[in-house]
Amino acid sequence: MKKLLIITLSLFLLTSCSTGEQPIAQTLGSVPSCDQIDISKASDKKLEMPCLDGSSNVNFHSIKGPVIINVWGSWCEGCREEMPYLVDLYETEAFTSGKIKLLGVDVEESTLDAGPNFIKSHSMTWPHLLDIDSKSKFVFGMGVPVTWFIDSNGDVTYKHIGAYRSKKELFDHVEKYFKVKL
Asked: Which of 106, 124, 149, 150 is 20 to 30 Å apart from 94, CA to CA?
């Protein structure tokens, strides 16, 4: 609880002392913006998380698909192993054209710069939310990585628990659950 209070207070102080310039995460390097997340789906449920670039808060339950949501942490070995497959996936036409979106959710970091540093070091150019108080455990579960496939109606069509062990496995799931050819 003390750790959570310190992280929350630090985040508040860092963002409240802004001079109107770029958000703190933006000054660390190229942390992608959450502008491309389609949040047009209405929902009575709330799970607000800040964008890791510091630009806004997003209600997870208002995200409209098709979207893949990958829950990760910089401390997670499986997350590090599967990240090159997600980077390759994001460079395919289905994602560069915007037909499918990709969203990361960074969880349980020990420092405020761990997530942004991980994003930069792994060339993760899609938007990411930050779960600073572990609220997403009630939606995504306890372990990471976990990858959710959400269709255009906002329904979860598939949930992959654990790390993807190959690029082919990930690509096959995208083709199967989104009916696209990669």
From this structure: 106
